[in-house]
Write a structure and sequence with these properties.
The chain is mainly alpha-helical. Helix content is about 65%, strand content about 0%.
Protein backbone atom coordinates (compact mmCIF):
# COMPACT_ATOMS: atom_id res chain seq x y z
CA UNK A 1 0.00 0.00 0.00
CA UNK A 2 1.54 3.28 -1.13
CA UNK A 3 0.34 6.85 -1.78
CA UNK A 4 -0.06 6.24 -5.53
CA UNK A 5 -2.36 3.29 -4.91
CA UNK A 6 -4.50 5.20 -2.40
CA UNK A 7 -4.73 8.29 -4.60
CA UNK A 8 -5.87 6.20 -7.57
CA UNK A 9 -8.41 4.30 -5.46
CA UNK A 10 -9.93 7.53 -4.15
CA UNK A 11 -9.87 9.13 -7.60
CA UNK A 12 -11.96 6.25 -8.95
CA UNK A 13 -14.82 7.05 -6.53
CA UNK A 14 -16.74 9.97 -7.99
CA UNK A 15 -19.11 10.73 -5.10
CA UNK A 16 -17.32 12.78 -2.41
CA UNK A 17 -19.22 11.27 0.52
CA UNK A 18 -18.70 7.71 -0.69
CA UNK A 19 -14.99 8.50 -1.14
CA UNK A 20 -14.74 9.57 2.50
CA UNK A 21 -16.60 6.51 3.75
CA UNK A 22 -14.42 4.20 1.67
CA UNK A 23 -11.30 5.78 3.15
CA UNK A 24 -12.72 5.43 6.66
CA UNK A 25 -13.29 1.72 6.06
CA UNK A 26 -9.74 1.30 4.78
CA UNK A 27 -8.29 3.22 7.74
CA UNK A 28 -10.21 0.97 10.10
CA UNK A 29 -8.87 -2.21 8.53
CA UNK A 30 -5.25 -1.27 7.79
CA UNK A 31 -2.08 -1.02 9.86
CA UNK A 32 -2.05 2.38 11.62
CA UNK A 33 1.69 2.95 11.22
CA UNK A 34 1.62 2.17 7.51
CA UNK A 35 -1.39 4.41 7.06
CA UNK A 36 0.29 7.31 8.86
CA UNK A 37 3.25 7.13 6.47
CA UNK A 38 0.92 7.08 3.47
CA UNK A 39 -1.11 10.03 4.77
CA UNK A 40 2.07 12.03 5.43
CA UNK A 41 3.35 11.28 1.93
CA UNK A 42 0.08 12.40 0.34
CA UNK A 43 0.07 15.61 2.37
CA UNK A 44 3.62 16.42 1.30
CA UNK A 45 2.92 15.59 -2.33
CA UNK A 46 -0.18 17.76 -2.40
CA UNK A 47 1.82 20.77 -1.25
CA UNK A 48 5.10 20.20 -3.10
CA UNK A 49 4.17 18.83 -6.51
CA UNK A 50 1.04 20.86 -7.35
CA UNK A 51 -0.63 17.47 -7.82
CA UNK A 52 -4.41 17.93 -8.13
CA UNK A 53 -5.10 14.26 -7.46
CA UNK A 54 -3.02 14.35 -4.28
CA UNK A 55 -4.75 17.57 -3.22
CA UNK A 56 -8.16 15.97 -3.68
CA UNK A 57 -6.96 12.94 -1.73
CA UNK A 58 -5.78 15.26 1.06
CA UNK A 59 -9.23 16.86 1.17
CA UNK A 60 -10.69 13.37 1.52
CA UNK A 61 -8.24 12.53 4.30
CA UNK A 62 -9.20 15.58 6.35
CA UNK A 63 -12.90 14.78 5.94
CA UNK A 64 -12.35 11.13 6.86
CA UNK A 65 -10.49 12.22 9.99
CA UNK A 66 -13.59 14.19 11.02
CA UNK A 67 -16.12 11.56 9.92
CA UNK A 68 -18.29 10.55 12.92
CA UNK A 69 -18.45 6.92 11.74
CA UNK A 70 -14.68 6.49 12.04
CA UNK A 71 -14.37 4.32 15.17
CA UNK A 72 -12.79 5.94 18.21
CA UNK A 73 -10.33 3.07 18.56
CA UNK A 74 -9.11 3.55 14.98
CA UNK A 75 -8.83 7.29 15.50
CA UNK A 76 -6.82 6.72 18.69
CA UNK A 77 -4.50 4.20 17.00
CA UNK A 78 -3.81 6.56 14.09
CA UNK A 79 -3.15 9.44 16.46
CA UNK A 80 -0.70 7.37 18.52
CA UNK A 81 1.06 6.00 15.44
CA UNK A 82 1.45 9.51 14.03
CA UNK A 83 2.96 10.78 17.28
CA UNK A 84 5.31 7.79 17.44
CA UNK A 85 6.47 8.42 13.85
CA UNK A 86 6.99 12.14 14.45
CA UNK A 87 4.08 13.22 12.22
CA UNK A 88 2.42 15.60 14.67
CA UNK A 89 0.58 17.46 11.91
CA UNK A 90 -1.05 14.18 10.85
CA UNK A 91 -1.84 13.34 14.49
CA UNK A 92 -3.77 16.59 14.94
CA UNK A 93 -6.13 15.65 12.12
CA UNK A 94 -7.62 12.98 14.39
CA UNK A 95 -8.36 15.29 17.30
CA UNK A 96 -12.09 15.87 17.77
CA UNK A 97 -12.34 18.14 20.80
CA UNK A 98 -12.00 21.91 20.66
CA UNK A 99 -11.92 24.64 23.33
CA UNK A 100 -15.45 25.91 24.04
CA UNK A 101 -16.58 29.18 22.48
CA UNK A 102 -18.72 31.47 24.63
CA UNK A 103 -21.67 32.80 22.66
CA UNK A 104 -22.56 36.49 23.14
CA UNK A 105 -25.99 37.08 24.66
CA UNK A 106 -27.22 38.71 21.44
CA UNK A 107 -26.36 35.57 19.48
CA UNK A 108 -28.02 33.33 22.07
CA UNK A 109 -31.18 35.39 21.65
CA UNK A 110 -31.09 34.81 17.88
CA UNK A 111 -31.00 31.07 18.52
CA UNK A 112 -34.32 31.28 20.34
CA UNK A 113 -37.55 29.66 19.09
CA UNK A 114 -38.50 32.72 17.00
CA UNK A 115 -36.50 35.20 14.94
CA UNK A 116 -37.49 37.91 12.47
CA UNK A 117 -35.62 38.10 9.16
CA UNK A 118 -35.68 41.90 9.45
CA UNK A 119 -36.33 44.06 12.54
CA UNK A 120 -39.74 45.20 11.30
CA UNK A 121 -40.89 41.75 10.20
CA UNK A 122 -43.02 39.25 12.07
CA UNK A 123 -40.88 36.80 14.07
CA UNK A 124 -40.68 33.42 12.32
CA UNK A 125 -40.49 30.08 14.08
CA UNK A 126 -37.52 27.82 13.45
CA UNK A 127 -39.78 25.57 11.36
CA UNK A 128 -40.84 28.51 9.17
CA UNK A 129 -37.24 29.60 8.66
CA UNK A 130 -36.19 26.06 7.78
CA UNK A 131 -38.97 25.84 5.21
CA UNK A 132 -38.00 29.22 3.79
CA UNK A 133 -34.34 28.13 3.55
CA UNK A 134 -35.39 25.88 0.65
CA UNK A 135 -36.66 28.81 -1.43
CA UNK A 136 -35.25 29.93 -4.77
CA UNK A 137 -35.93 33.60 -4.05
CA UNK A 138 -32.70 35.54 -3.76
CA UNK A 139 -34.22 38.30 -1.62
CA UNK A 140 -35.20 35.75 1.02
CA UNK A 141 -31.93 33.84 0.78
CA UNK A 142 -29.90 37.00 1.35
CA UNK A 143 -31.80 37.49 4.60
CA UNK A 144 -31.60 33.84 5.64
CA UNK A 145 -27.81 33.59 5.31
CA UNK A 146 -27.69 35.89 8.34
CA UNK A 147 -29.59 33.32 10.39
CA UNK A 148 -27.07 31.70 12.77
CA UNK A 149 -29.13 28.62 13.64
CA UNK A 150 -27.33 25.37 12.66
CA UNK A 151 -30.52 23.76 11.33
CA UNK A 152 -31.16 26.68 9.00
CA UNK A 153 -27.53 26.73 7.86
CA UNK A 154 -27.65 22.99 7.12
CA UNK A 155 -30.59 23.46 4.73
CA UNK A 156 -29.05 26.52 3.07
CA UNK A 157 -25.87 24.56 2.33
CA UNK A 158 -27.89 22.12 0.20
CA UNK A 159 -29.98 24.79 -1.54
CA UNK A 160 -28.99 24.80 -5.25
CA UNK A 161 -29.71 28.54 -5.47
CA UNK A 162 -27.06 29.42 -2.86
CA UNK A 163 -23.78 30.80 -4.25
CA UNK A 164 -20.19 30.59 -3.05
CA UNK A 165 -20.26 34.24 -1.99
CA UNK A 166 -23.31 33.44 0.18
CA UNK A 167 -21.45 30.65 1.94
CA UNK A 168 -18.39 32.85 2.41
CA UNK A 169 -20.65 35.32 4.22
CA UNK A 170 -21.93 32.51 6.46
CA UNK A 171 -18.37 31.33 7.15
CA UNK A 172 -17.19 34.89 7.84
CA UNK A 173 -20.04 35.88 10.18
CA UNK A 174 -19.09 37.37 13.52
CA UNK A 175 -20.27 36.37 16.00
CA UNK A 176 -21.11 32.88 14.78
CA UNK A 177 -22.29 29.57 16.18
CA UNK A 178 -19.49 26.96 16.14
CA UNK A 179 -21.90 24.16 15.20
CA UNK A 180 -23.04 26.12 12.14
CA UNK A 181 -19.45 26.64 11.01
CA UNK A 182 -18.74 22.94 11.53
CA UNK A 183 -21.57 22.14 9.13
CA UNK A 184 -19.93 24.35 6.51
CA UNK A 185 -16.56 22.71 7.18
CA UNK A 186 -18.06 19.24 6.65
CA UNK A 187 -20.08 20.01 3.54
CA UNK A 188 -18.72 18.16 0.47
CA UNK A 189 -19.60 20.95 -1.97
CA UNK A 190 -18.56 24.06 -0.09
CA UNK A 191 -15.75 22.89 2.17
CA UNK A 192 -13.37 22.48 -0.79
CA UNK A 193 -13.74 26.08 -2.00
CA UNK A 194 -10.66 28.14 -1.21
CA UNK A 195 -12.54 31.29 -0.22
CA UNK A 196 -14.79 29.31 2.12
CA UNK A 197 -11.82 27.53 3.71
CA UNK A 198 -9.99 30.79 4.34
CA UNK A 199 -13.09 32.34 5.89
CA UNK A 200 -13.54 29.37 8.21
CA UNK A 201 -9.91 29.20 9.32
CA UNK A 202 -9.85 32.93 10.11
CA UNK A 203 -13.16 32.86 12.00
CA UNK A 204 -12.54 32.67 15.78
CA UNK A 205 -15.80 30.75 16.26
CA UNK A 206 -14.72 27.85 14.03
CA UNK A 207 -13.94 24.86 16.27
CA UNK A 208 -10.17 24.45 16.51
CA UNK A 209 -10.27 20.82 15.34
CA UNK A 210 -12.08 21.89 12.16
CA UNK A 211 -9.74 24.85 11.58
CA UNK A 212 -6.70 22.56 11.89
CA UNK A 213 -8.04 20.10 9.34
CA UNK A 214 -8.97 22.88 6.91
CA UNK A 215 -5.60 24.59 7.27
CA UNK A 216 -3.89 21.34 6.27
CA UNK A 217 -5.33 21.66 2.76
CA UNK A 218 -4.41 25.32 2.18
CA UNK A 219 -1.58 26.59 0.00
CA UNK A 220 1.94 27.31 1.21
CA UNK A 221 1.26 31.06 1.04
CA UNK A 222 -1.87 30.62 3.15
CA UNK A 223 0.03 28.46 5.64
CA UNK A 224 2.77 31.08 5.96
CA UNK A 225 0.14 33.76 6.61
CA UNK A 226 -1.60 31.62 9.23
CA UNK A 227 1.65 30.75 10.99
CA UNK A 228 2.38 34.48 11.46
CA UNK A 229 -1.12 35.62 12.44
CA UNK A 230 -1.01 36.09 16.22
CA UNK A 231 -4.76 36.69 16.36
CA UNK A 232 -5.21 32.97 15.72
CA UNK A 233 -4.96 30.23 18.38
CA UNK A 234 -1.40 29.16 19.09
CA UNK A 235 -2.14 25.54 18.20
CA UNK A 236 -3.48 26.57 14.78
CA UNK A 237 -0.41 28.72 14.10
CA UNK A 238 1.86 25.88 15.17
CA UNK A 239 0.02 23.42 12.94
CA UNK A 240 0.27 25.74 9.92
CA UNK A 241 4.01 26.13 10.51
CA UNK A 242 4.53 22.36 10.78
CA UNK A 243 2.54 21.60 7.62
CA UNK A 244 4.54 24.31 5.84
CA UNK A 245 7.81 22.74 7.03
CA UNK A 246 6.65 19.28 5.96
CA UNK A 247 5.68 20.63 2.54
CA UNK A 248 9.28 21.66 1.92
CA UNK A 249 10.42 18.04 2.09
CA UNK A 250 10.53 15.65 -0.82
CA UNK A 251 7.39 13.47 -0.95
CA UNK A 252 7.91 9.88 0.05
CA UNK A 253 7.09 7.07 -2.34
Amino acid sequence: MGPDHIIERLKAIRDAKMRVLALCEALNEGDPTAWVEVLAAIMTRAHVMNDNDASEALECITHAAAEPTLPYRTRQQLYTAAIDRGHTAIARLFLTTSPPVVLPSQLKKQLGPERALRPADRPLTLGERKALARTHRRDKLLLLIKDPHPQVVAILLDNPHITESDIVRVASARPAVPESLSKVAAHPRWSVRHAVKRALVLNPATPLADAIRIATTLSQLDLLELSRDHSLPEMLRKHAAEVLTDSQRRPRA
